[in-house]
Design goal:
Elements: H1 2-15, H2 22-25, H3 33-37, H4 66-69, H5 73-78, H6 86-99, H7 106-112, E1 123-124, E2 131-132, H8 134-152, E3 162-166, H9 172-180, E4 185-190, H10 192-205, E5 211-212, H11 214-217, H12 221-227, E6 230-234, E7 246-252, H13 260-273, E8 274-285, E9 287-288, E10 295-296, E11 306-315, E12 318-328, H14 335-340
Parallel strand pairs: 3-4, 3-7, 4-6, 5-6, 7-8
Antiparallel strand pairs: 1-2, 8-12, 9-10, 11-12
This protein binds S-adenosylmethionine (SAM).
């Protein structure tokens, strides 16, 4: 598997970068392939700094600042286990479940929870025969929201519905959605380093699935799309996703960390690839500045051909982040007014 990860990483490098990463995501060293080659690291990647910034479990349960938690390459290559404060994680999970009461059940968590791959900091849940991982549990919440959206939308009745996620972290949401919608095709657009992590995660999560990446797609995206259950594409290949191919697109907690020009470019991509009557779930901070730009959800440049499936929903445990559920098609009447009302 590490060989496939490397092949995709090399292919993505040849494709090149389409745009600047911005201050928030300019964090990977150019020799990231060193980490890919470090075999001992991968079975523990979720308790190491590999998924720093795209896995909130990494800094949950420690009292230190996030920066202090970023280990050096030397520490990563030694693959030393990470000590975490399990009680703090338990408290955070209990608080989360309280906040999402009525929206997410323990049964849904039990069905979709995954806390094995990459040895995340999983903790036992009091009074239940269950262990959970903090970041994973938030992905369970999103999976259930997206399943509902699918049922309402264009893809709900398709034999092979298509999900596109831009900025997917290590890939857990896509894996959960395929558990809920087994014939779903998932296309993930991300940075090449994160695509590598996604390939590891998804190949472990679903060993029988066809996982393809830049090496397979670079010369023939159509053939890759014919075969892939998961297609992991570097950001620079966004233009190769065919028009009208996608039933449901999602961007969760990611546009908010990109430069404004990159967000605008991705919104054009989403508008091109989502089918008529398809949907877009966009959950981002009202305002965030870590990319170097002031990125405001209310100012995202959506065109006129979106309507709202439901009113904007602040995430119950992160109310500064608001989820928009949008449908592509006839001009919506209330989206502009709703966006204008979103102020930090
Ligand atoms: C904070 S993580 C969010 C992960 C996941 N969606 C969640 O909410 O837990 C942000 C994601 O955006 C990705 N990302 C950053 N810049 C990107 C870009 N220019 N194109 C695509 N993805 C990007 C990161 O690699 C990461 O997967």
């Amino acid at each position: 598997m590490l060989r496939e990860m490397l092949k995709d990483f090399e292919a993505a490098k040849q494709v090149g970068e389409r745009s600047a990463r911005g201050a928030h995501w300019d964090i990977f060293r150019p020799d990231f392939d060193r980490l890919i080659r470090t075999e001992a690291l991968w079975p523990r990647f979720r308790q190491m700094g590999v998924s720093y910034r795209f896995d909130d479990s990494f800094h949950t349960g420690n009292g230190r600042g996030k920066r202090d938690m970023l280990p050096s390459y030397a520490a990563l290559e030694e693959a030393k286990p990470w000590r975490f404060d399990g009680r703090a994680v338990q408290i955070r999970i209990a608080d989360f479940m309280e906040k999402v009461a009525g929206l997410l059940s323990w049964e849904e968590v039990a069905f979709l929870s995954e806390c094995r791959i990459g040895s995340p900091p999983a903790v036992p849940i009091e009074d239940r025969d269950l262990k959970a991982d903090w970041n994973d549990i938030s992905q369970v919440f999103f999976a259930m929201q997206l399943k509902k959206l699918f049922e309402l939308g264009a893809g709900g009745r398709d034999a092979r519905p298509v999900f596109l996620e831009i900025g997917a972290g290590y890939g857990s949401l896509a894996a959960k959605l395929r558990k809920l919608i087994p014939n779903l095709q998932c296309i993930l657009l991300d940075l090449p380093e994160v695509n590598a992590v996604q390939r590891y995660y998804l190949s472990e999560a679903e060993p029988g699935a066809t996982v393809l990446g830049a090496a397979a797609a670079r010369d023939d995206v159509a053939a890759a799309l014919d075969h892939a259950d998961y297609l992991l594409l570097p950001a620079a290949m966004a233009g190769q996703v065919p028009a009208g191919h996608v039933d449901l697109a999602a961007n969760i907690r990611s546009f908010m960390e990109m430069p404004i020009s990159v967000v605008a470019d991705y919104i054009r991509t989403v508008q091109r690839v989502v089918k008529s009557n398809g949907q877009f779930f966009c959950a981002n901070a009202l305002e965030k500045t870590t990319s170097g730009d002031v990125v405001r959800l209310g100012e995202y440049p959506f065109d006129e051909n979106w309507s709202m499936v439901s009113p904007p929903m602040p995430l119950p445990w992160q109310p500064h982040i608001v989820a928009l559920s949008l449908r592509r098609g006839a001009a919506g009447d209330r989206l502009r007014a709703a966006l204008d009302s979103l102020t930090a």
